Amino acid sequence: MYYNSIIETIGNTPLIKLNTLNEGIEGTILAKVEYFNPGNSVKDRIAIKMVEDAEKDGRLRPGGTIIEGTSGNTGMGLALAAIAKGYKCIFTLADKQSQEKIDILRAVGAEVVVCPTNVSPEDPRSYYSVAKKYNESIPNSFYPNQYDNLSNQAAHYETTGPEVWEQTEGKITHFAAGVGTGGTISGVSKYLKEQNAEVFTLGIDTYGSVFKKYKETGEFDEKEVFPYLTEGIGEDILPENVAFDMIDEFIKVTDKDAAIMARRLSREEGMFVGWSCGSAMHGALRWARKNLKKDDMMVVLLPDHGTRYLGKIYNDSWMKDHGYLEKREFATAQDILLNRNGSNELVTIPASTPVGDAIKILSERGISQIPVTENEEFVGSLTDSKLLHKLIEEPELRGEPVSKLMDKPFQFVSSRDTLDVLSSLIDKENKALMVRDQLNQVHIITQSDLLMAMSS
Ligand SMILES: Cc1ncc(COP(=O)(O)O)c(C=O)c1O
Questions:
Q1: Is 187 in the pocket of ligand 1 (CB under 6 A)?
Q2: pTM of the predicted model as reported, rounded to 2 decimal places
Q3: Is the beta carbon of 274 within 6 A of some atom in ligand 1?
Q4: DSSP E strands: which ranges in 233-315?
Q5: Where are the beta strands (DSSP E) in 231-337?
Q6: For atom 5 of ligand 1, which residue has the closest CA?
């Protein structure tokens, strides 16, 4: 079996159960993973539908040119449709967009016109105005306008909605998706609610966007609008494709929570997804934790792939600069002592002990290193591997006191030092560390203690 062209591979993306991030939530959470589309995003679905609807009613004729002001996913989808159907593509985008995005669109044959970012949309140099100008001046050109073109919503009503319904065998009870143009949630919800009016739909919005307040009060509040970073969701306009009556509730998610959740989806579920996927999943899980019941089944749509965000949320320096990096909680030396099974008693050896006796003590106690004391002071240390080496070289040392061949004492650390600090101090030369507890008792921390703490 083979496909006749790349566009035939659009859709029929997999539905995958969460196995880790859903911990503590009743019911089933399933991810509809849209990066399996050939352009790595959900937008392939609307691109082909907008193009084919335009062909049907003559807005686009053979040899025509597709023109859109786009920075990414929709451009990729349109470029694939154009390749399969023999159209030219011109995309205008703002110069704040990353070079990678421009390169990706050029890689699939599109002409990219880079316009200045810091001008108003009405300015003739803006990427909106330039796209409009090209559309007016180039004959047989088509301007899809994903915001207000209802083919967008229809694509999801015809493909995504039925797929979700069939993949869940009609058992879906909740659907959640981010809202940008609104095409995804409106089209999918319309289809699902027609099959079962009880299906609940949750729209994910960002801080800095008008949707949630508009749904709840009917007011378009410009005070809600401020700049934010998450790409693809939230708006400062009301696109035609947002069918508010199809969305039961909106929930807002911060840029930071979205970034951290996207990274967790990659690391803990193996789903290497984009930033707005983190928004959708964070909002959905927060809502589900409070409201989902045992027999419920929630589908969360994840729009795109992580590669486009390698320079942002998947770059630790970028995350740190934005104050987003997750704090990893490291255990301290004190935690290691508290979690230790068995005796915490420190075994030491006097400096006058003959080497032969010291070897016996190490083997009887089943330990590999030991502090050496003199007059209740720590004056040195012994490790079994070093003892062995020295005895092979000079067997007559067996009867000598350990003070003759001991190493320097083990280093003392604070009980508040964390695992990352402790492990940087243990190496080939320094096999163990010493720590004093609140009762002034001294304990030894070895490499195997650190390994145990790291793996627990
Ligand atoms: C990355 C990303 N996430 C989410 C969305 C939101 O989907 P929709 O436009 O169908 O509401 C978009 C669309 O712009 C997107 O590009």
A1: no
A2: 0.75
A3: yes
A4: 249-253, 297-302
A5: 249-253, 297-302
A6: 232
Whether 303 lines ligand 1, by a CB cut-off of 6 Å, is yes
Which of 133, 140, 249, 260 is closest to 201 using CA atoms?
A: 249
Residues involved in catalysis: 43
Are 20 and 269 in contact by the 8 Å Cβ rule? The answer is: yes
**What is the whole-number distance in angstroms between the Cα of residue 294 and the centre of ligand 1?**
30
Pocket test of ligand 1: the residue of 175, 184, 301 to mutate, having most ligand atoms within 8 Å of its CB, is 184
In terms of DSSP bridges, do strands 297-302 and 349-350 run parallel, antiparallel, or are they unpaired?
unpaired
What would the pLDDT profile of 50-102 be if each residue is shown by its tens digit? Answer: 999 999 999 999 999 999 988 789 999 999 999 999 999 999 988 877 788 88
Characterise 300 by phi-psi region: left (phi > 0), alpha (psi -120 to 50), beta (else). Answer: beta
Cβ count near 428 (within 10 Å): 6
Q: Which residue has the higher pLDDT, 384 or 205?
A: 205
Question: What is the number of alpha carbons within 13 Å of residue 122 lying toward its C-beta?
Answer: 0
* Residue 179 burial class via C-beta count within 10 angstroms: exposed 0-12, middle 13-18, buried 19 and up: buried
